[in-house]
User: Fold this.
Amino acid sequence: MKIYYFILTLFFCSISFAQTSISGSVKDTKNEPIPGVNIKISGESLGAITDANGKFALKAPAKLPFTIEVSSIGFATQKVQVTSLSKKVEVVLQSEDTKLDDIVVSASRTPERVKESPVTIERMTIKDIKKSASPSFYDGLENLKEVQMNTSSMSFKSINTRGFATVANTRFMQLVDGMDNSSPLLNFVIGNMIGVSEIDVQSVELLPGASSALYGANAFNGILFMNSKSPFTSQGISAYVKYGQTTQKAAGTNDYADYGVRIAHAFDSHFAAKANFTFLKGTDWFATDYRDLNNPGKDRSFYNYNGLNVYGDEATTNIKGVGQTLAGMGLIPASAVNLLPNYNVSRTGYNETDLTDNKVRNTKIDFSLHFRPLGNEKLELIWQSKFGFGNAVYQGANRYYLNDFFMQQHKLEVKGKNFFVRGYTTTEDGGQSYDMLFTALNVNRAWKSDSTWFGQYAGQYISSTLGGATPEQAHAAARVVADTGRLIPGTDAFKAAFNKVIADPNVLTGSKLVDNSKIYHSDANYNFKDLIKPVEIQVGGSFRQYQLNSHGRIYTDAEGPIFYNEYGIYTQAQKKLMEDRLKLTGSVRYDKSKNFDGNFSPRLSAVYSAGSQKAHTFRGSFQTGFRNPSTQDQYIGFNVGSAVLIGSAPDNLTRFTETLPVSNGVPAIGQALAGGPTKVMTGENAYTNSYTASSVQAFAALAGSNPVAAAALLRKSNATYVKPETVKAFDLGYRGQIKKISFDVNMYYNIYNDFLGNLTVVAPYYGTAVDSPSITAGPTDTGFQSIHAITSGNTRAYQLYTNTDIEIKSIGFGIGVNRKVYGNYEVGANYNYAQFDFDQAKDPSFEAGFNTPKHRVKVSFGNEKLFKNFGFNVSGRWNTGYLWQSSFADGMIDAATVVDAQINYAIPKLKSVLKLGAANIGGKEYQQVLGAGLIGQQYFASLTINP
Assistant:
């Protein structure tokens, strides 16, 4: 913070106002001022942006005359010659009632109009941010066509397009000023926690679908580009403050605040700098789903209850097996064992609300220095540093509280008219983050060990049964006795145990998450368009090194960091034909990562502009993309309680080991078969000697009544080591304007092979996993031994990262329409259809996790100039219900209807805009991630100065 304040001081002390300048204003044909207009001196690097009243001031060259370029989205660009410094420049822009002429860069890595893009593209501009009714610009991205938002926490939101959505979305990329925002450890984007400030956003571009041909293997489902403002053209001091309240049935009504400041200054045509600071705080959406998804309809009175947002009840064991152990120790008569039921009982857990303070905090700081040696855009050197830290809840296999999480990025970039070269590093620190499941497990164990708790439970159950109690009464009495001494949330004893557990990284006694991982990345691009005229040719490449360092807590890196490298090179050729009506583009990229063979990603596309004004564009593209397994898929070795997440890199399987206790079972031969009272299990057991979890569950359901038939249901997993997945992607679209209505229509069809996903397996401590083992073969048969291991609880569950050999197909359709009606009123709507095809019967244990509504509708209605200085906007979203599949939980997400609204008032004298808004004003709470909190209502008032 001291560094940041020092930079601010330098800025304030360095700004000089005694410079030659011109001033003026920009209005539309109705004499209304236009804010946010770009003013630039032709051939120079300096520029300005009009304020809320349409006025601007710009440093001028000493020599007259000169020309300024005046441009704004939705208006035709004008060039105005300036012949006098004393005369104010008055500009009137003609409206262009279409968004199809917006300039984008991301689709082809070269500037082009939206309607000429070879692939589907969505865009959010400064103007759109002002109109947004969402609490933040990042929330407002959800209103774009094709976007699906997945909210794990108020400050942790994951964007996805075209299916297969997750919170930990490794198929989607997010670049901020060219830097990948992904977590170095887990390879997925953490929302906008280290993104860009709302008042520093220049534009946001979204490419739905595969973009591997230009952007590499991770751009598999889409890529989001967030570009910040240049201090050469957007100068001055801007600030915003938001205050409001969130309302949720579980959490009640709570205050939240969000504020930020941006300072930018161009000292001359050669040097400029800027800095941003933002801070958000509030109360998170409480996660209070207490359903037992394993036993639908059961509540806390159920003996083996496992609530979705209750943790610690994952400690479960066969209570009859406990009785056998007690009898073997001479603590109860052998005959008493028969009074115990032959099923599992779970410990009493703690609610998620007992294990986190549910507070959201996020601070972002960034600064950059810009140097133009030639005094123009032909060559620019940029140093940029970004820092983000705060609190949020992340949902993966468990729910994790990211507490004082810290991430930083530093970039050095050289760019010019036709090239860029950049290198950056990303570093993160887990801070005081912890796993809520292991927090509950080990807080429970702090006051009473599992063996003691289950022993007391079994003893009291026997006593109650002998006293004439029913099974329900016996279970209730047993739980009361076993829970004697339980630490109660809020007490000093609970707090002391809780604080000790979350500070301890050992999963046997603690829950702290340790992470000091890094990414080193470099990439470059050169466009030969000024050297080779007939065809526009680009070449580029990238290199990345991961340094995984969880100190053995998450990855198998206890002995030291794991280093993992990948690189890629690409080229693209583009040619216009038929009087520039037809644009053909071809590109190909080669990527290679450490553990896999290299892959090529080609893309071919065509865009044809029809009509006398080329106002109707038709596009089509085909590409073959691929995605390398993430570092998590390969190197994770993470105990999540109910299972171990295990990556399939060969060296990873041997590095992961556990020493687990063995029970004797019935008959009492377990320890003899295992070779002792403990068994060492490695990652190799998961892949080479395991049953599918679904077949083990089927076995357990039938074993009590027909053990022979039950054994016939067991299936060996036959899981393969993870390998790259591939996609063949077809995309068709149309953009145009018909009777002043803008249309954007697209359709896609994807064919996935070797699709990456998860498979849960159960490995026996002894015996051999085979299809349909014989339960009558006897103890010398290794198949029988594996059944004995299952019935005795001598097994370890693993979640594997693997591929399915079943082809998966997805298809989608989208249409967006937009039109101005009756003056300045603007209406917009879009619809998306998404569906996938996967023959689950051919691979019953594999979860594809499409996690996407089949139907989505979004609408907006507003007027920027309802009357003088006033504007408003209303947006609505609706989606059908859909199946959610994840390593945390599977279940249905209900259909949802959400309405947001805002009114804004410009205060020209203060160069400010006041906005009052509300999100989800319909009042019905809804969910986007199964296991996360229901999203309630959010009301806010904001004041933006010099937007």
Remarks:
- The chain has a mean pLDDT of 91.
- The first strand starts at residue 21 and ends at 28.
